[in-house]
Design brief:
This protein has 16 helices and nine strands. The protein is an alpha/beta fold. Strands 6-5-4-3-2-1-7-8-9 form a nine-stranded mixed β-sheet, with helices on both faces. Strand 5, helix 6 and strand 6 form a beta-alpha-beta unit. Helix 7 packs antiparallel against helix 8 and helix 8 crosses helix 12. It is globular and about 65 Å long. The N and C termini lie far apart (59 Å).
Length: 399
C-alpha cells in the first residue's frame, strides 16, 4: 500500500507591494515588480498543505488574488489571508466567492494608535468596517492581528475585548527583525510594561470557556519569554514540515532570518526536486543552528501541534489555578522576569539578547530587477503608481 502523502504548512507571499507605512516594517519601501510575482503555473507546483497563509506585502493589491485562492484550494485544507483590510470591496468580493476562507486584518491598537503605527488614513475604521461587514455576511473565520510594541501595548486588552464582543479571532505578535520586514532595529524598550499587558491578556484568555483561547494564552506566555530575549519554549522545525515561498518563487524555511535563506526556486524546479535538494538540506542545517529565537505564529503553531504535550500541560496547570484565583498566570513565572525585577540582569544585557542591530543594514530579499526600480522611484511611489493604474483600469471597465 502506498504511503500517505505528508501535508505541509505553507505561507505564500504573493507580493512585496504594500500600501501601508508601518513603523515596524519597511517592506513598503522595497516592493516587488508585478511582472516577477508568483504566477498560477508556479502555484500549481506547490505540495499538498493542511494550512496555507496568504500574505504580503498587502495581498489584495494583486487583482488576480481570487485566481490564486481558487488554485490554492486545490492544494490546501484551510486558507487564511493576512491583510491590512484597506481594500474592502476586494476583500468582500473574495469572501463572497470563498466563504470558507479565513481573513485576519492587522489592527495595531485603538483608532489613534493604529493609524499612527500603520500610516493609513482612516486605516482603523476601514479595517474595522471590513471585519464588521464580513461578520454580517456570516463569515466565521475572521479576526484581528496585532503586533504588540511599546507604543500600542496599552491597547492590547481593549482591542481583545472588541474582538471578543464581535465573536472574532484575535492573533498577536511582537516586534521582529528580518529581511522580510526589511528591518534590523526593532526592539521593545519597556519590557515589564509590555509584559504586564500580555499578562493581563493571558489571564483573560485562560478565564474564557474556549480551549482554543487557552492555547492562545500559552502562545502569549511565549511572547513574554521572547521579548526578554530567552530561548524558545518549543523547538523550531521550520523547513522540515513548514515552508514559505516568496513572490519570486524562492522557497525558504521562514520569514524570520536576517538574510533570505533559499532552499530552491519553484519557478525553475519541481517541488520534489527542490524539497530534497542539497540546497534544502543545507538550509535545514542552518535552521538547526539558528539562534534568533523567533516566536511568530507561523513557526509556533506547527510546533504547538507537534509537541502538543508541552502547551497542553501548561494549559492544564493554569486552568486548575483558574478555579481558585482570577489571575492564574503571572509573568514572573518566567525566571528572566524575576531576575530583571530583582536587578540580577540589566536592560543592556537583555538588549544584547535581541535581534536588534542598530549598525546593520537591513536585507530586503528583492530580486535584482525589483531593486533596480528603486534607483528611479521610491517604493512608495512605485506602489502608488501601480494602484493608480489599477483604479484607472477598474473605472474604465465600469464605464
Amino acid at each position: 500500500m502506498p504511503s500517505k502523502e505528508k501535508k505541509l504548512n505553507g505561507t505564500v507571499i504573493v507580493t512585496y507591494r504594500c500600501n501601508a507605512r508601518c513603523t515596524m516594517c519597511n517592506r513598503y519601501k522595497a516592493p516587488s515588480r508585478p511582472e516577477e510575482e508568483l504566477g498560477l503555473d508556479t502555484i500549481r507546483k506547490l505540495p499538498k498543505m493542511y494550512f496555507t497563509n496568504i500574505t504580503g506585502g498587502e495581498p489584495f493589491i494583486r487583482t488576480d488574488l481570487p485566481e490564486i485562492v481558487r488554485e490554492l484550494y486545490r492544494k490546501s485544507d484551510r486558507i487564511v489571508i493576512s491583510t491590512n483590510g484597506y481594500f474592502t470591496d476586494r476583500i468582500v468580493a473574495l469572501a463572497r466567492e470563498f466563504p470558507q476562507v479565513g481573513i485576519r486584518i492587522s489592527i495595531e491598537g485603538l483608532e489613534k494608535t493604529n493609524n499612527e503605527i500603520r500610516g493609513l488614513e482612516n486605516g482603523f475604521q476601514r479595517g474595522y468596517q471590513t471585519l464588521k461587514t464580513l461578520r454580517e455576511m456570516g463569515m466565521k473565520d475572521v479576526g484581528f492581528g496585532m503586533t504588540v510594541q511599546d507604543r500600542n501595548a496599552p491597547d492590547l486588552v481593549p482591542l481583545y475585548d472588541i474582538s471578543d464582543e464581535m465573536g472574532m479571532e484575535f492573533a498577536t505578535a511582537s516586534l521582529h527583525n528580518s529581511f522580510y520586514f526589511v528591518e534590523s532595529k526593532n526592539i521593545i524598550h519597556d519590557r515589564p510594561m509590555v509584559a504586564k499587558h500580555f499578562e493581563d491578556l493571558v489571564n483573560k484568555l485562560l478565564r474564557s470557556r474556549s480551549p482554543k483561547k487557552w492555547f492562545r494564552a500559552y502562545f502569549n506566555h511565549g511572547l513574554i519569554n521572547y521579548i526578554y530575549g530567552q530561548p524558545r519554549l518549543l523547538p523550531c522545525d521550520m523547513s522540515f514540515d513548514t515552508f514559505f515561498i516568496d513572490p519570486y518563487g524562492d522557497v525558504m524555511p521562514c520569514n524570520g532570518t536576517k538574510d533570505k535563506e533559499v532552499m530552491g526556486n519553484l519557478n525553475r524546479q519541481s517541488w520534489d526536486e527542490l524539497w530534497n535538494s542539497p540546497e534544502a538540506a543545507a538550509v535545514r542545517e542552518k535552521v538547526r543552528r539558528c539562534d534568533r529565537q523567533c516566536w511568530m505564529i507561523g513557526s509556533v503553531s506547527p510546533a504547538m501541534h507537534k509537541y502538543i504535550w508541552k502547551p497542553a500541560w501548561w494549559v492544564l496547570v493554569h486552568k486548575i489555578k483558574s478555579l481558585f484565583t482570577s489571575k492564574p498566570y503571572s509573568m514572573f513565572e518566567n525566571r528572566i522576569c524575576r531576575d530583571y525585577r530583582d536587578g540580577k540582569v540589566t536592560k543592556e544585557e537583555l538588549d544584547l539578547c535581541s535581534t536588534c542591530d542598530l549598525c546593520a543594514a537591513a536585507s530586503d530579499g528583492l530580486s535584482k530587477d525589483s531593486r533596480g526600480l528603486l534607483s528611479e522611484k521610491t517604493g512608495e511611489e512605485i506602489v502608488a503608481d501601480d494602484l493608480a493604474r489599477q483604479m484607472e483600469k477598474e473605472n474604465d471597465q465600469r464605464s
